[in-house]
Design a protein that fits this description.
The structure holds two protein chains of two kinds.
Chain A: H1 2-20, E1 22-24, H2 40-55, H3 59-65, H4 68-73, H5 76-90, E2 93-104, E3 115-124, E4 128-138, E5 141-151, E6 166-168
Antiparallel strand pairs in A: 1-6, 2-3, 3-4, 4-5
Chain B: H1 2-13, H2 31-46, H3 50-55, H4 59-64, H5 67-81, E1 84-96, E2 105-115, E3 119-129, E4 132-142
Antiparallel strand pairs in B: 1-2, 2-3, 3-4
Helix pairs in contact in B: 1-5
Classes of the chains: A alpha+beta, B alpha+beta.
């Protein structure tokens, strides 16, 4: 039991190290009255395709499909390393269930625009996780702009998680 | 403030909280329609059209709460919260197999809503019926100080219970 806890904790640490690559952006409270953005279904579909590419080890394809903002922030080689590291730690993907789409308003450090987090409950061989894919609106479509995998235990998801897009550095 | 909180909590007590389990993908859920329908429904609440709300709700809601009691519930909520001033969509999340409700598809659509007397998180629960997404519940919770503490759908549990309609008493 102690071992399990210890292992988990070190997994957490390692994943957090992986996340150190990522800048966590806080959304500010929105002052504008807002409807839900259009195309939620499209956003979720695009996020699903992207995570499938991660499952298939296609980090290059992920990078190419990502938003220009992400491509400017992280180069293709570093993205490959990030995905490789996350998957090495988590193990193979075993199941994934969509949980939620959260709006992120005015994330700091990101161009103005519409952002969503698409959140999955995902079981990997080594850990049960929450996967968050951040999406940015580009015209009428949504493009991935970030990806974070957090272990479900023992770390508690930050209370403000819904307000933060998981944006790569 | 504390008194208001307890009054809001009292209103929420009318509703049973349901937790779901299970896994489903988001594909084919038609999230956009669900959110649009939820938006129209709460606009009816703003306009004191509780009867119209009841009539457009799911038959499950209609069986659980009479039209008259629904009217009392809505007006009691609005008495406590005051007029709606600003509403921002924040999230849509999936609830699988909520206890005490028929098997089916359920979503929670959440808003950060400012009423004259309180910052709140409004949750409209939706279920997929024969004619598409239908409202099946409505809960207004007072947000924590600042109003930014919107319930976090990427937290480790479906922290957001779907709102079950008042049990008709």
């Amino acid at each position: 039991m102690t071992h399990a806890v210890h292992n988990r904790s070190s997994f957490t640490k390692r994943v957090l190290q992986g996340c150190a690559l990522s800048v966590v952006l806080l959304g500010t409270g929105a002052a504008l009255a807002q409807q839900a953005p259009s195309g939620l279904e499209k956003a979720v579909d695009a996020a699903a395709k992207w995570t499938a590419q991660a499952d298939a080890g296609q980090a290059d394809a992920m990078w190419k499909a990502s938003s220009a903002t992400m491509q400017k922030s992280v180069n293709q080689a570093d993205w490959g390393k990030y995905i490789g590291q996350v998957r090495k730690e988590a193990g193979a993907q075993q199941s994934r269930a969509w949980l939620a789409v959260n709006k992120v308003d005015n994330p700091q450090g990101m161009p103005p625009g519409e952002y969503l987090n698409v959140v999955y409950n995902t079981k990997f061989a080594n850990a049960a996780t929450f996967e968050t894919v951040s999406m940015a609106k580009n015209g009428s479509s949504w493009q991935p702009v970030g990806y974070i995998v957090r272990p479900q235990q023992p770390a508690k998801a930050p209370a403000s998680g819904a307000q933060q897009p998981a944006a790569s550095k | 403030m504390a008194r208001k909180t307890s009054r809001m909590a009292g209103a929420a007590l009318v509703l049973a909280l349901l937790f779901g389990t299970g896994t489903v993908t988001a594909q084919g859920l038609d999230l956009d329609k669900a959110v649009a329908t939820a938006g129209k429904w709460i606009a009816q609440a703003d306009a004191n059209q509780a009867d119209a709300m009841w009539k457009t709700s799911s038959s499950v809601l209609q069986k659980n709460v009479t039209q008259e009691n629904w009217g009392k519930y809505i007006s009691s909520l609005r008495d406590k919260a005051g007029n709606e001033q600003e509403r921002s969509w924040v999230a849509v999340s999936k609830i699988d197999n909520p206890q005490g409700l028929p098997t089916g598809q359920y979503l929670n659509v959440m808003y950060a809503t400012k009423f004259a007397k309180a910052m709140t998180v409004e949750t409209v629960s939706m279920t997929k019926g024969s004619s598409g997404w239908e409202p099946i519940g409505y809960v207004v919770r007072e947000a924590n100080s600042g109003g930014a503490a919107v319930n976090n759908a990427n937290a480790s549990k479906p922290a957001v219970a779907p709102a079950q309609p008042a049990a008709g008493k």
